Amino acid sequence: MHGYTSGRLNLPFTGICTFAKKPHVADWSAIDADAAILGAPFDAGTQWRAGARFGPRGVREASTLFSFGHAGAYDHEDDATYLSDDVRIVDMGDADIVHTDTLQSHANIRAGVEAALAANALPVVIGGDHSINIPCIEAYEGQAPFHVLQIDAHLDFVDERHGVTRGHGNPMRRAIEKPWVSGMTQVGIRNVSSTAREGYEDARDRGSDILSVRQARALGPDGVAARIPSGVPVYITIDIDAFCPSIAPGTGTPSHGGFLYYDVLEMLQQVTRAHPIVGIDLVEVAPDYDPTGSTSILAAQLLMNLLGFVFHARAQG
Question: Does 131 fall in a domain?
Fold first, then answer.
């Protein structure tokens, strides 16, 4: 019988909500995959509306929409099939979060990313607030240097405020301090930021390239991608508040004037064509602020397409 009619139909709304209904691997020492999804449901770094702890669950549920699995996803515009069966993706489940304990929770997230790296799988981490990027980047200690592409409304370059150094306003400052982070491109930064002027000056002094939404649109996706140093490996961190809250209201600190879908998708496609991608995180999805589920669907669709681009580029050599 034809593959579509034999066995189980396995529709998106049936079964267990792993990411894209991929296999769950509970034993992190037994990961055998090209990409490994890790949930980081930590939101104690939040300075306004909490709720991103439910991000991994929301994005996983939304991702089942893209799990029909008929031999990958054919894109007629690109005339390419993305994420066919030869791309092996697994879901590691979530890092264990200890409520009110940032350091232990972050250590547990780091351990998950290290397990993915040890298995030569691409780590893909779903937050959680943006502070979860801190242990993600720390997990690359001893790895080859890479450039960070941040897509975000906010600079997140606060050094320390009232003794807090690992909140969601700190991750890009913590990243640039690492000897294995070679530089940073920060795109989508706009309006009133959580970072004061000194933070912007500090970021630029350390070699950061900062672009607003309007500046990025004027350059175009190719122009933004071309600003990243040629050929360097790239780690991509995406804050869902980079997008306009008209399409992504489900986040703790919405900022109007954000990107639309193709603004970001085309930029990411260009980056994957020109650079090896060493890691991905997507943060700040707080599903309870969006009863339509659109924010979670946007996040899942973006991750699925980004993974498709990454592995298509690898296959093209």
Answer: yes
Task: Please determine, for residue 132, whether its predicted confidence score (pLDDT) is greater than 60.
Answer: yes
Q: Are 154 and 194 in contact (CB under 8 A)?
A: yes
Q: Total domain count for the chain? A: 1
- Is residue 2 scored above 60 in pLDDT? no
Other C-beta atoms closer than 10 Å to the C-beta of 47 total: 15
* CATH at 108: 3.40.800.10
- pLDDT average, residue stretch 40-64: 97
Question: Which residues make Cβ contacts (< 8 Å) with residue 167, sequence separation at least 6?
Answer: 45, 46, 47, 131, 158, 161
* Alpha carbon distance 206, 53 (integer Å): 32
Contact status, residue 123 vs residue 117, Cβ threshold 8 Å: yes
What pLDDT does 1 receive? 44
